[in-house]
Amino acid sequence: MAIKSSKKGSGEKIINSELNKTPFAIVESYKNLRTNLISIMSKADGKILAISSPNAAEGKSTTALNIAITLSQLNKKVVILDTDSRKPSIHKKAKLNNEKGCMDVLIGDASLEDVVIHYNNFLDVITSGSKVKNPSELFSDVTFDNLLEQLEEHYDFIILDTPPINIVSDTLIIAQKSDAFVMVIRAGVTKYEAFEYAYDSLKVLDIELDGVIINGSGGKGGYYSRGKYNYYRYSNNSYGK
User: Is residue 241 predicted with pLDDT exceeding 80?
Assistant: First the structure.
């Protein structure tokens, strides 16, 4: 049974037109990134991709939203879920109402159908919703597991925009419930020590880091390997936080 919603995203044309107006090199970089992420998800044999960053203002949410858009352009059913309840931003970038969202489902004040916003036939958005005092506990609860299971029944890809790893513990909980995990870092901004601290936090819980997206590098895009990490480099200056 398909998820139905009476809510329509006011930012539908804005999101797609903004991506279409993006310089060719950036568009191609996103397509390269999309190809590699699809490969990661295929190897993980799952649908849930969590995206985070070491700290705030590194372009995490913008990157997550544009990844969702480019995946949906393959005519795949995609949903992006804003799990950063302390400082949500997906609704701002997409110009959506954030009155009800993910957290309202988790506290039992809304159903999934109440919070899904349809952009087009292939891309849905679930904003963060109401502020709560205990997001970590809610993400640890079976209710969040049930929500993810519901989404898996209806979508080909589930993108989770999570809080920065070094700021709150929510992401470490969410990552354990995801099939793949990638981290966004901003060239010239993210300190190596911050990345190392975030990576060590993942390592303690045996959470695999499947890739690192280098944001704002000014490169032509592409994929390369270094050590145990997969890196995706692209110029995102027009879209950064």
Answer: no
SS (HEC) of the chain: CCCCCCCECCCHHHHHHHHHHCCHHHHHHHHHHHHHHHHHHHHHCCCEEEEECCCCCCCHHHHHHHHHHHHHCCCCCEEEEECCCCCCCHHHHHCCCCCCCHHHHHCCCCCHHHHCEECCCCEEEECCCCCCCCHHHHHHCHHHHHHHHHHHHHCCEEEEECCCCCCCCHHHHHHCCCCEEEEEEECCCCCHHHHHHHHHHHHHCCCCCCEEEEECCCCCCCEEEECCEEEEEECCCCCCC
Q: Which two tokens stand for residue 186?
A: 């901003």
Structural domains of the chain, ranges and CATH numbers in brackets? 12-234 (3.40.50.300)
pLDDT in tens, 146-173: 999 999 999 999 999 999 999 999 999 9
pTM for the predicted model, two decimal places: 0.85
Structure tokens at 2: 């398909």
What amino acid occupies position 11? G
Say if CB 55 and CB 134 are below 8 A apart. no
Structure tokens belonging to residue 5 = 């919603």
pLDDT in tens, 189-227: 999 999 999 999 999 999 999 999 998 765 443 332 333
